[in-house]
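This section describes the prediction task in plain terms. A model, or a person checking by hand, is given the sequence of a single protein chain and must write out its three-dimensional structure as a string of tokens. No templates, partner chains or ligands are provided. The sample shown here is typical of the held-out split.
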Amino acid sequence: MIQKMQVGLLWIVAGILIALGGLLVFGDKVSASATCFTVAILLLLIAHIDRLESFKGFGIEAKTRALRETISEAETMRNQIGTLTENLQSFKAEADATKLEMDSILASMKSEVDRAKRMARRTQF
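The expected answer:
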């Protein structure tokens, strides 16, 4: 987004170009005057492009508000996906830790069962 200082500078340059264009008209330099006026108008359009809903000219068509809204929605979705990814990574880490703990408990239980079987075989004889 164009900052206020840049907009002010564009206005100043456009004002200078309009004044110069006016002086050139009185000096019978019409083509130079028209160029100054055209550039001044373009600078004013650039200064306020964020206020325009659509722009059409020189084979370019842009819908600035719709584009801004789409970009805003995309940024919101990107942030939500980032949060979801972080949550999923945290969940996976917890699940991995729980699996390791369960594997340890299962291994311990298997060794206890094996020990109990060995003791049961000894007592049978």
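For orientation: The first strand starts at residue 54 and ends at 57.
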